[in-house]
Design a protein that fits this description.
By secondary structure, the chain is of the alpha+beta class. The chain has two domains: 70 residues, no CATH class; 61 residues. Helix content is 46%, strand content 27%. The chain has a five-stranded antiparallel beta sheet, covered by helices on one side. The longest helix has 30 residues. It starts with 6 loop residues before the first strand and ends with a helix.
Length: 147
């Protein structure tokens, strides 16, 4: 699939992971997930856009305000990868959820340690929730191994 030749503004937004978005005049809003990194990675953004048929032209510009802290311009090109299947998209979402659970479990354990002296009951409750998160991670890892 090739795109017609057009340049569009691209915006990068963070909401538990980084996404880049284009507002195409005929195809509507196009979005691509770049990953769950805390810091914006312009190379990862360029890579997923290239896979989707868009080449970044020019530098990513940091924006001082607004929902999109980084913007750039992209031009249509031939996609470098076949579109993701529903299973691949689902697997990426599961990976993102597992990463978020792992991070939340670590934070809960840290908070439980800070609460241990002042409020042992709260510390125990936080550790119990972290344990539940870890159990879910173990179960879903085993389910992934069977596929």
């Amino acid at each position: 699939m090739t795109h017609e030749s057009v340049e569009l503004p691209v915006r990068a937004e963070y909401d538990s992971d980084w996404h880049v978005f284009l507002d195409h005049p005929t195809q509507g809003a196009l979005g691509y997930c770049t990953g769950a990194d805390e810091e914006f990675d312009p190379d990862a953004a360029a890579r997923v856009l290239e896979e989707g048929g868009w080449r970044v032209v020019g530098p990513w510009m940091e924006q001082p305000t607004g929902d999109a802290p980084y913007t750039a311009t992209a031009t249509a090109t031939t996609p470098t990868a076949a579109p993701a299947t529903d299973d691949e998209i689902r697997d990426r979402h599961i990976t993102d959820l597992r990463t978020a659970l792992e991070r939340a479990a670590r934070e809960l354990v840290f908070c439980a340690g800070r609460e241990a002296a002042a409020d042992p009951g709260q510390s125990a409750r936080l550790m119990a929730v972290a344990g539940e998160f870890e159990a879910v991670l173990v179960r879903t890892a085993l389910a992934d191994d069977r596929h």
